[in-house]
Write a structure and sequence with these properties.
By secondary structure, the chain is of the alpha/beta class. The protein has eleven helices and eight strands.
């Protein structure tokens, strides 16, 4: 196996808790990817491998409350700004000065938080399916029942997790789905409460001050990630490129076009 295709799992301590990550490839051209809410870093493995094959060092991170990272039960530990601090802690742990930082859904919003808090640590950002001003009602309809189940019907969450844990692993997207279903009631409730009732994203005024070059990917037909949010974000950001995905699942089911776009964007962030 060549050095560019090495995959190494690691972890580090953050505010008394453990955060897990995987590194793909090597070198000075670094990309950090974070996942959607209740998903894990495994969701970005195909994209990470593709970018690593193109010569980039890619790090996928399990944010607190997700995947192999610790899952505390205090809701105050979960917020978009707090997740942004975790990404910066990852850069510090790996002694990385600057990186292209991106993510999907929750991970997209986390990249925006990093851009507000520490733009000097970013060469660019990849924003897929951001959830901004238009998401509140759909977010409540989607996640409030999960919060109720975790708080008042914890046996239902535990039963789903037990069933998911018996599904054989080995298929990328089967593994992603089972990872997502393997929740523990108390941490899941804390996570949803912290995210749902905290700041969803930086304000429009703050977004207009972000000068970090951005690639924004949006799609139609998804109430949780409205097309209007992606489109308006691309308009808000002073240095943004906008790409419309053909569907909600294009980057997962038929990734060639969008991965080419992403790879080209990352490459240009390191030119010169």
């Amino acid at each position: 196996m060549t050095p560019q295709l090495l995959e190494l799992a690691g972890s580090f301590a953050f505010e008394g808790h453990r955060l897990a990550y995987t590194e793909y490839g090597s070198g000075d051209r670094v990309v950090v990817l974070t996942h959607g809410i209740m998903f894990t870093r495994r969701m970005h493995a195909p994209l990470a491998r593709r970018l690593a094959a193109d010569g980039f060092r890619v790090i996928t991170l399990d944010l607190l409350g997700h995947g192999e990272s610790d899952r505390p039960t205090e809701s105050w530990r979960y917020s978009m700004p707090a997740f942004g601090v975790q990404v910066l802690a990852l850069l510090d742990h790996l002694e990385i000065d600057r990186a292209v930082i991106g993510g999907t859904s929750l991970g997209a919003n986390v990249a925006l938080e990093v851009a507000v808090a520490a733009p000097e640590r970013m060469r660019g950002m990849i924003i897929e399916m951001p959830a901004l001003d238009n998401v509140i009602v759909a977010g409540l309809l989607t996640f409030a029942p999960l919060l109720f189940a975790a708080r008042f019907l914890p046996f239902s969450v535990a039963w789903v997790a037990a069933v998911a844990g018996r599904v054989p692993h080995g298929s990328q997207w089967v593994d992603v789905i089972t990872d997502t279903l393997e929740q523990r009631p108390a941490p899941m409730a804390a996570l949803i409460h912290g995210v749902l009732f905290g700041r969803i994203a930086p304000s429009k005024a703050a977004r207009r001050e972000i000068t970090v070059p951005a690639l924004v990917i949006g799609h139609e037909g998804d109430p949780i990630h409205p097309f209007g949010d992606a489109d308006s974000l691309a308009s808000d950001l002073p240095d943004a490129e906008f790409v419309q995905a053909r569907s909600l699942v294009e980057l997962r089911a038929d990734p060639q076009r969008l991965t080419d776009v992403i790879a080209d964007f990352v490459r240009r962030r390191y030119e010169g």
